[in-house]
Each structure stands twice: as C-alpha cells, then as structure tokens.
Amino acid sequence: MKTLFSALLAFAAAVFATTASAQGPGLRLIDVTGAFDRFTLSTANMPDAERVAAFEKQMATVAEGFYARSRKPERYDQRVLKNLKEYPEQRAAILAVSRKFEAAFGPARVSFEKAFGPVTSPQPIYLVHSLGEMDGGTRDLNGKDTLLFGADVIAKIHSDKDLAPFFHHELFHVYHEPLMANCDPLWCSLWEEGLATYVASSLNPSAGDSALMLDLPAPIRPAVDANRAAAICAVVPLLDSEKEDEYASLFYGNSHLSGFPSRMGYYIGYLIAADLGRTHSLHQLAEMKPAEVRPLIDQSMAQMARCPEKDGGERG
Fold first, then answer.
1. What is the DSSP track for 102-145?
2. For residue 258, what is the DSSP state?
3. Which site among 56, 159, 168, 202 is 20 to 30 Å from 112 CA-CA?
4. For the chain (length 316 residues), average pLDDT per consecutive 10?
5. Which residues partner with 108 through β-bridges?
6. d(Cα 305, Cα 316) in Å, to the nearest integer?
7. For 124, which DSSP code?
8. Alpha helices in 236-289 (DSSP H)
9. What is the pTM of this model?
C-alpha cells in the first residue's frame, strides 16, 4: 500500500513538473505529454480493465479534465485502451514533437503578434496526447474555452510540414473567438474557420494547401473548384443550421455532403474571407462583429453562385 501511495505521489509530482513551461506574458504553454508517457510505460503490464480504470483515476484532472470520462463518455474504454496499446510504436515521434514544440511555436507566436498584437488567454495552452482526437483546436473544458495541441496527431500529419501556418490558424482562433462569442449557427463556424485559414495563408504566402490543411482527408480545393457554384449552393441552405450532423458534413473528415469533399467548409469559408479581403484588411476582417459579418457572407456567396430559392426562383 505504501509503495502504491509513493508511486501516486511521484506521478502527481511529475504531472506538476510538466506545467512549468511558459510562453511569455498572457499565454502559457503546458506540456503534459510526459505525464501520458509515464503512465503508459508504468502500466504496461496491467490487465486491460485495470489499466483503463487507473487511467481514468490518475489522468482525469490533467489538462483541465481533457482525459475525464465525463467529457467524452462514448466508447471511452475502447478509445483509451486502443491508444495506450498503440503508444509504444508512436512514442518516438510523439516525444519528438514534444521536444521541438516550443522551438516551433515560439517564432510562430512572434510573427502572429507582429501582425495582430499580443495574444492573451486566461487559459493555458496544452500540448497533450489527444487520443487521436485532434492536431489542434479549442475545447470547452470545465466551462472554459481551452486551446490544445495533440502531439500524437501532429506527429502523424504534420511531421514533414512547416508548422507556422498551422500555429497561425490556431492562434487566430484564440484572438478571434472572444469576438464571436455566442455565435452558434453554422455560418459562424464557416466564418471563423475560413478566416483562420485565410489569415494563415496571408501570413505565409508560400504555404500550399497541405500546410493550410486543405488536403485532408483528400484535396479539397480541386474537388470544390470543379463545380464551385454547386458547392456554394449546397452550403447556402445550411447557414442558419445548428444541427451537429450538418456541421459535421462541412467540417469533419469522416462526413460530407453528397457529391462534395469532407471538410469543405474550411475552403468555402476561405473563399469568402479571401473575397472580402480584397476590400478589407486582416484587422478589419478580424474585428467585425457577427451582425456585420453575416450580410457580407450572404453577398459574397451570392456573387460566387446564383442559387435556387426554395420557391423555385434564384438567390443572388
């Protein structure tokens, strides 16, 4: 019993030690990949059920509760166990991301702040093993919007890429999301993701679609451009939707609208932002309030395509 207690104290101290990394005033980076690594190695010989139970107990409070079962209960056991068992083969690549992360993130933050000014957040930024969930993104953790980077997914899809456009995309969300608070319809996400992609492109003029993440799970631009008007018109009826499945059809890699590529919402949103960028600066676009944005989205989409109205007429 004493040995187990000592081990738990050592584990807690190790988790605490990983939280000491800072990235300057107003924005803290906390790397908890070491905590995941230590847990995985120390429990390798546990029976599966005991191992998952130990994971839930010991990791539940790490990174604002990112690993808590209550955050994502569906198929929790299977997801945790799958990632724990796959970890040894991925370990070297994930730890390499951890070692190099600050050296890549720091300059990207500097160049972003040169364009937009200081980025601040009351919440730390976490580098985690995301259990395959994401390369980067914000999540509601304990009622707070929190930016996380998934070292496991970064290792899989960004290992040979310039990370600056990716970091700029995610940093822009930290900068921009407070201005879009409580904006829930699908058009809000179209604008937020499209503008983040446009900002990343503008700050990195030589970045191709791979660096802008417009090639996952397959190239999006050519598939949309082959019939851009039809793609625009497929999105128009969804703009006011708050349905999860319709959001997924535009932004998830495992869903799509019939006849169109997965995640095309990023590219459609980018096209809108680029169109408005011809007459507005990045700062002007970023500072627009939702009430200002929506009519401009409608105008831009109407210029790109004449879409049938529900009554049989045409929109635009």
1. HHHHHHHHHHHHHHH-----SSPEEEE--TTS-SEEEEEETTEE
2. T
3. 159
4. 38 40 68 98 98 98 97 96 98 98 96 96 96 96 94 94 96 95 97 98 97 96 98 98 98 97 98 98 97 98 92 56
5. none
6. 7
7. P
8. 244-251, 264-276, 282-287
9. 0.89
